[in-house]
From TrEMBL:
Signal peptide start and end residues: 1-27
Protein name: Amidohydrolase family protein
Domain of life of the source: Bacteria
Keyword terms of this UniProt record: Signal
InterPro entries according to UniProt: Amidohydro-rel (IPR006680), Metal-dep_hydrolase_composite (IPR011059), Metal_Hydrolase (IPR032466), Metallo-dep_Hydrolase (IPR051781), OTAase-like (IPR057744)
Key word Protein biosynthesis present: no
Span of domain Amidohydrolase-related: 86-434
Pfam families membership: Amidohydro_1
Amino acid sequence: MSPRRPARARAAWLALAAWLALVPALASPPKQDGPRYIHVGRLLADPAGGQVLSRMTVVVEGGRVVDLREGYVGTPGQTIDLSDRFVLPGLIDSHVHLGHENGPDDKLLRTVRSAADLAINGVAFARLTLEAGFTTVADLGAENEAIFALRDGIAAGKLPGPRILAAGNVLSPHGGEGDLFGYRGDVTRALQRPNLCSGADDCRRLVRQQVQRGADLIKIVATGAVLSDADAGVDQQFTDAELQAIVDTAHALGRRVTAHAHGTAGVNAFLRASGDAIEHGTWLDQDSVALFKHNGAWLVPTLLAGDTVAGWAADPDSFLSPAAKAKAASVGPAMLEMARRAHAGGVPIAFGTDSGVSRHGDNAREFGLLVAAGLTPLEAVRTATVNAAAHLGLADEVGRLAPGMAADLIAVDGDPLQDVDVLRRVRFVMKAGVIHKDQ
Ligand SMILES: [Zn+2]
């Protein structure tokens, strides 16, 4: 035996041991035993009440808030200093699409991207979203396999990202907004996803199968959409009987249903069928306002999507098709007016951006638009905390800071109740007790 071999073997063993020691750190976020004491300059623990407390300690252990104490307490070495910052619960965006961002090559990309590609996109976009302060999101439309894998990977601590409720495939009638447009017939058939139904019985089947595949909630398209190439307007697409079948089946399986809807008839038909929430709601009317309030349904106005597509429509070099461009030009400006009417009428509003239309990580731009629609900064913060939590069925988990709630919190410089745009510059992000950003 060469005298050099034991030394080489020892070096190899040392390298392997060092690598093995790294593996747990790579596989899951570092765990810290015992409580940690977060010293907070100003604290908005419960946006429902809106009280801002000064010089507070948030005690966190095992991923949860265990206590809120007056003054700065805690053991040295286990404290986190946010004494010069404003702290509030982690934000919630109830309408994102983490698998992609819209762009000029969408039609081509649909033919070349796999579900795995979309999941990898989602890894990057989930991180941007979390670092922007959004610790919980609802993904309202993505390939089933891609978004369910991303959701489960984040939940298992394999990669950083917000807690995700995922709808997976968006349910649509045949020939409706969620069908494919602009491809050759054989290409259309090859790209088709299992997301289409016609008739009440067929739609019941589709809801059951979507839940079977792993959907946390059901998303449907109740009307035409802005960014489809269908020159079919934005009015009701599912029949009343189909809407009722979808909502009843989802509710029987313990799932909420939310509907993409722009046109008045589609909005009201879905609300009459006891749907839980409307995404966009562009042409809702006084009947809609009454239905929202009567049913306790939520409006997710997605003003940032309206702002984004109106910008594209105004661009002479826009990549939008003529049909999409005409719709975008009218829908964008109408959305702000819609939110103003809905808010003034007392419709419950939950925060949602439709990010993926706008850039991921820009989610907090929605706050300024909500304020432009007449919400106070506190009301705007509520939409992304207590309201969105209630809308998504997570009111006992996220949206406020109290003993037993998830230790999801963010910190900003300045006072978001004076200037809501400070939420576009989040300095500190903790999700389930793990720090993901600390500037
Ligand atoms: Zn959307």
